[in-house]
Amino acid sequence: MKAFLRSRPVQHLMAILIASWLKLCRDTLRWTVEGEAQAQAVWDSGSGAIFCVWHATGPLGPACWPQGPGRQEMRCLISRSSDGEFMALTMNKIGYPAIRGSSQKPSDKTKHKSGERAFRDMVRWVRDGGAVSITPDGPRGPVEVMQPGAPTLARVTGAPVILCGLSSKPQIRVGSWDRTIIPLPFARAAMVWDGPHYADRDDDLEALARDWGARLSAVTRRAEAILDATGGE
């Protein structure tokens, strides 16, 4: 059964279905937004940018980044795992092509080469004015612990990092390691921005990862609190 579900035709079909669902949610969610002016300044600059959401809220992420003329084209960092292959297919159908790799510390030579290639691709893309979306606790956690990949990319490229806390209500929680959110059409949703942040040459990358991770968790809790306060059932 696992081999069947991971076959190319089945994954393509599932990607079409999930992408259609997420597009429906994107078009019908009723958003409350805080701090958008901070993100707007980054969008209006036309320069490269780094966008971070926690892995659990990733399905809400495509609703955050405006598409169209004059906007930075977004690409998503997605792992090279079999699950990542499905996610890459899905995000491509939504309009966000993937850069394949991981923000986690490599554990073997193959992953190390893959991670280096993904990092080079991201650097080139951001320096050319593109935007990259990173779930900095992915692909396997720990939950809401930012890995140093985003701060490293920010230091090498000089690009701004913007953090976005997301939530929706009602929603479905998947029984995965991070309890991923699946939004429902016409639900209430909240989006809270923090940043932009920059990484200087002399900054401690691990300290930056801890600080930005705490900030990303804070805006995520704020998004959840907004929906609780407004009765988003």
Layout of secondary structure:
Elements: H1 2-5, H2 8-28, E1 30-34, H3 36-45, E2 49-52, E3 74-78, H4 82-94, E4 98-100, H5 109-127, E5 131-134, H6 149-157, E6 161-173, E7 181-197, H7 205-229
Parallel strand pairs: 1-7, 2-5, 2-6, 3-4, 3-5
Antiparallel strand pairs: 6-7
Helix pairs in contact: 2-4, 5-6, 6-7
What's this, in brief?
With 233 residues, this protein is α/β, with parallel strands linked by helices.
Mean pLDDT: 86
Q: Extract low-pLDDT stretches.
A: 105-110
Radius of gyration: 17 Å
Strand order, main sheet: write it out: 1-7-6-2-5-3-4
Q: Sheet with the most strands? A: 7 strands, mixed
List SSEs in N-to-C order. Answer: HHEHEEHEHEHEEH
Spatial separation of the terminal alpha carbons: 36 Å
Helix amount: 40-55%
Q: Oligomerization state of this entry?
A: single chain
C-alpha geometry: globular
Q: What class would the helix/strand composition place it in?
A: alpha/beta
Structure commentary:
The chain is α/β, with parallel strands linked by helices and 233 residues long. It is built from seven helices and seven strands. A hairpin with a 7-residue loop joins strand 6 and strand 7. It is globular and about 50 Å long. The N and C termini lie far apart (36 Å). About 3% of the residues have low confidence.
